[in-house]
Design goal:
CATH class of the largest domain: Mainly Beta
Radius of gyration: 23 Å
CATH topology of the largest domain: Tachylectin-2, Chain A
Number of helices: 1
Bound molecules: beta-L-arabinofuranose
Number of strands: 31
Shape: elongated
CATH superfamily of the largest domain: Glycosyl hydrolase domain, family 43
């Protein structure tokens, strides 16, 4: 079960609802989320995703993307995320076509004391654009409140805005509409300062969208989803200036293993580590317009090329041993006798369980912080019809045994608590192993 802590201050409830979430992948556990634009503001990471909802008759187009608002999420440690609530709604933007439900992939950037939130959507006045254009909302704080501008940015037609501010202070807006476009932004951040140009030399065949540009060691990385085969994968090209020309250089992430047709990403450096934020469809395996954002670590080679990122469940951040450790978000899993399933297929936001059904089957969950204070016991929420014993080890599959936990047979979930045989301080990789052949399902484990 996931833990949601609602604020006690009634006046906060009137403004927006703030919810605390513990998360690995996916990062957002209380709603669908897509197209994550991550930014480092101060000592926190803020993520501005799209917010997928399910269309119904009269609300969006059934079977297609449906988005009416945006939330912002932030974290200081990449494990505990705060949902700051809704920051922009289509019905609060004066120029948006009210029945469009097309608040697609956004971005946000800081300049001169203000936060500028860019979002693509459909205007009711087609003289701005037939189809999508891009608007801006402005705030004094990264979590809002954001005030939408009365009109969209002129001379922009397309989706997926991304903003980059170069070392000399010049800001650029990027977006996509078949091709990827770029233009300079004025100092006011809400008007173009140059005519849009098509960025080259990118692959000609197959859809390209979702540009995200960043600079590292004098290299400008233009990164983008591209349909090289049947679904999108994340690629990058490099150049010497913010508007190119760029040279295709490689693939950052292959096509989604779960068949999610889109991917959309951002790349940040936070406390000396680079991260890729992207999306899959974790909570909606059979409908890929209801997506979930994720993050994994990203590494550069010494020549500046990017190593391919493999999507993981474990994701990023350290997990406090005293929280409910969701081992179904594993780092590694045994080849035989171990699998993951939804706890409740009728309510997928309940999350997942680990299923072990062979003696010796195991899951490994990395980076659990035990701190310095000795925990005395371990708890596990588990269900085993025939009964089984779980073994908890650290450091390796043959590493020190912390506990053997007998789970008696029955049809109900039970929380079983056992004293620890020994304790290993600091950050540990955790192994949960089935000792017998009887099937056992595990929701979470925790130390106290
Ligand atoms: O979320 C709607 C669209 O799907 C985005 O704008 C694209 O980048 C793709 O992720």
């Amino acid at each position: 079960m996931r833990k949601h802590i609602l604020p006690v201050c009634w006046y906060l409830l009137l403004v927006s609802i703030t919810i605390q979430l513990h998360a690995q992948n996916p990062l957002v556990r209380n709603q669908y989320s897509a197209d994550p634009s991550a930014r480092v503001f101060g000592d926190r990471v803020y993520v501005y995703p799209s917010h997928d909802i399910l269309a119904t008759e009269g609300r969006g187009r059934v079977g297609w993307f449906c988005m009416e608002d945006y939330h912002v999420f932030s974290s200081a440690n990449l494990t505990d995320w705060t949902d700051h609530g809704m920051i922009v709604h289509q019905h609060k933007v004066p120029w948006v076509k009210p029945d469009s439900y097309s608040m697609w992939a956004p971005d946000c950037i800081y300049r001169n004391g203000k936060y500028y939130f860019y979002f693509p959507t459909t205007p009711k006045d087609t003289s701005y654009a037939r189809g999508f254009t891009i608007g801006v909302a402005i705030s004094d704080k990264p979590e809002g409140p954001f005030v939408p501008q009365p009109a969209p940015i002129l001379n922009v037609r397309g989706i997926d805005p991304n903003v980059f501010i170069d070392k000399n202070g010049q800001a650029y807006l990027y977006w996509s509409q078949g091709n990827i476009y770029g233009a300079k932004l004025k100092e006011n951040m809400v008007e173009l300062a140059s005519d849009p140009v098509v960025l080259g030399e990118l692959p000609n065949k197959g859809l390209k969208e979702g540009p995200y540009l960043f600079e590292r060691n004098g290299i400008y990385y233009l990164t983008y989803p591209h349909v090289e085969n049947k679904t999108e994968r994340l690629e990058y090209a490099v150049g010497n200036t913010p508007l190119g020309p760029f040279k295709f250089t490689g693939v950052i992430m292959d096509e989604s293993p779960t068949g999610c047709w889109t991917n959309h990403h951002s790349i940040i450096q936070f406390k000396d580590q680079w991260y890729l934020f992207y999306h899959h469809n974790d909570y909606s395996p059979t409908f890929d317009k209801a997506r979930s954002i994720r993050a994994d670590s990203l590494f550069f080679n010494t020549d500046g090329t990017i190593q391919k990122v493999l999507p993981t469940y474990r994701g990023i951040g350290v997990t406090n041993a005293q929280t409910q450790i969701q081992i179904d978000r594993y780092s590694h899993i045994s080849d035989k006798g171990a699998s993951i399933a939804f706890l409740d297929t009728a309510n997928k936001f309940q999350g997942w369980k680990t299923v072990l059904d062979a003696a010796g089957a195991w899951v490994q969950y990395n980076s659990v912080d035990f701190g310095k204070k000795n925990p005395k016991s371990v708890m596990v929420r588990a269900l085993s019809q025939a009964g089984n014993t779980l073994q908890i080890r650290v450091q390796g599959i043959n590493g020190p045994v912390l506990a053997d936990i007998p789970v008696t047979g029955g049809n109900d979930w039970q929380v079983v608590k056992m004293s620890l045989l020994q304790f290993k301080p600091g950050r540990q990789n955790l192994f949960v192993i089935s000792k017998e052949n009887n099937r056992i399902e595990i929701d979470w484990t925790s130390f106290e």
